[in-house]
Amino acid sequence: MKIIEVHAKDHYEAGYLLGQLTAKMQTAYIKAFHLPAPWDILIKKSLPFLDVTKKVFPQYIDEINGLANGAKIPFEKLWVFHCIDEVMEKQHIERCTSIFLKQENGSGYIVGHNEDWDVWTGEYFFILKRTLDNKTVVELGLAGLISGGTICINSSGMIQAINSLYHTDYQIGIPKQIVARWLSSRESLEEVKEEFPKLRRAAGYCYNMSKKTKVLSIESSARRYEFFETNKNYVHTNHYIGTLKEVEKQYKEEMQSLGRYQHIRSVLSQVHTVNVLKDLLLYTTNDDSSVYRTKETSTVASVIFDVPKKIMYAAQENKGLNTLWQQINLDFIT
Description:
Blueprint: E1 3-7, H1 11-21, H2 23-32, H3 39-56, H4 58-71, H5 75-82, H6 84-88, E2 97-102, E3 109-118, E4 125-132, E5 135-142, E6 151-154, E7 159-164, H7 176-183, H8 189-195, E8 205-211, E9 214-220, E10 225-230, E11 234-236, H9 254-267, H10 274-281, E12 297-306, E13 311-315, E14 326-329
Parallel strand pairs: 1-4
Antiparallel strand pairs: 2-3, 2-11, 3-12, 4-5, 5-6, 6-7, 7-8, 8-9, 9-10, 12-13, 13-14
Helix pairs in contact: 1-4, 3-4, 3-5
């Protein structure tokens, strides 16, 4: 995967530089994306979300403005991409997997994540290293967005791994992609627990966070949320596992999420090393237990953060034992 580095003095510049460096990719992605409605309708429906977000996170609106100007794409179109699910009140079916392995020596977690999306999108993902406000974030980026809404790690050692969830409640509020961008720069789980409930959210993800020896998993919808905390191994896929199950929207892929979740839970106690975690992320079958997806909605990238050793691994093709894993140093972690 392409590695893109951005060093910026403010949010606008961070977006502008990213837009310049990915302009062709951004334009091609928007052209290839199958819009659920005409642009004029989408833009009109997106404006109430913009009004709310400007009041709470003006810095991220500046960042999207920079991205738009750097890539020479109208801001309104990029804003739609940041709230497309909320505008349509319908989530794209994404099947992501997040696995947190506690290290017995107390040195932190090794975290693995499969990003599953439409098979054609693979070429529009990249590794972004963004330094801003004396903080560095490395994440799996996606064209059209200031934040990939995938998996990231910042210089404080905080990890965020996102899983899509499917719920029935929506409201005018801050899009989940913007919430993810905000969380990517947090340094404390306590700060997240204090500030997250104050946000008027338009929709929800499962935001899985970890720092040092703790995991905080936030299952959310537009109006509700639930915190899960643990210092043990943890896994999440694409269905609610807590009390928010009652607001879950039924969808045909739910059984696949359950099958994947149950398989990983059954073997997780045997997974202790990066190499075994790689094998688990690449585990492929023809039934619902398959962790690696190969159909229309497929695994477009696999990522591992080995926090104790400050190393990131990333792969986009599953070739079994011959899979090529990029290795990126995370020596900016303090």
